Amino acid sequence: MSFPPIESVIPHRAPFLMIDRIVEVERRIVAARTFRLEEPFFQGHFPGNPIVPGVLLVEGLAQAMAYRAMLSRPAQKAFLVGIDRTRFHSAVLPGEEAIFEVTLPELGEAGSERFGLIKGHGLVRVGDRRIAEAQLSGYSGEPGRPLG
């Protein structure tokens, strides 16, 4: 299945674009990124034992959720406004492909989109290995507008 290019949907660009491929877009979005050893953050995180920083994995989840939100509301902007119940179970190493999955509630369910606010459950994995998970809250609308 073909999806619009990531850069045509969300405003993020290298070196801060944390997803490089969209795999699925339905009620959940699945995106992927292969982290390469030459990425600059590996120089300091950690020398001799490089791992992808956890905050970048959470950012990858947020970008996947933003992609999904902006597909349905392309004239709006998307912002991460909350991260809850975040847990890290394992690490992503250079050369590994991280899979970012964000499941969104159905419209009408508790937590579904209202007033531009959207919530989702994010999961990062490498193959069958669970890496991290978090509850994410986002806002799709105009910047500076009060939430809620």
Describe what you observe in this structure.
- The protein has 148 residues and is an alpha+beta fold.
- It has one domain (6-122): Hotdog Thioesterase (Thiol Ester Dehydrase, Chain A), CATH 3.10.129.
- Helix content is 16%, strand content 36%.
- The chain contains 2 helices and 6 strands; from the N terminus they run H-E-E-H-E-E-E-E.
- The chain has helices at residues 6-9, 54-72, and strands at residues 21-25, 28-34, 77-88, 97-103, 117-126, 129-141.
- It has a 6-stranded antiparallel sheet with strand order 1-2-4-5-6-3, with helices on one face.
- The radius of gyration is 15 Å and the shape is globular.
- The N and C termini lie far apart (35 Å).
Mean pLDDT, all residues: 90
Rg (CA only): 15 Å
CATH topology: Thiol Ester Dehydrase, Chain A
Please list the strands of the largest sheet in the order they lie side by side. 1-2-4-5-6-3
How many β-strand stretches?
Answer: 6
Oligomeric nature of the chains: single chain
Low-confidence stretches: none
Distance between the termini: 35 Å
CATH superfamily descriptor: Hotdog Thioesterase
Shape: globular
Strand content: 35-45%
Number of helices: 2
Order of helices and strands: HEEHEEEE
How many separate domains? Answer: 1
For this structure, what is the CATH class?
Alpha Beta
Structural class: alpha+beta
Biggest β-sheet: count, sense, barrel? 6 strands, antiparallel
Q: Which CATH architecture is right? A: Roll
Helix content: 10-25%
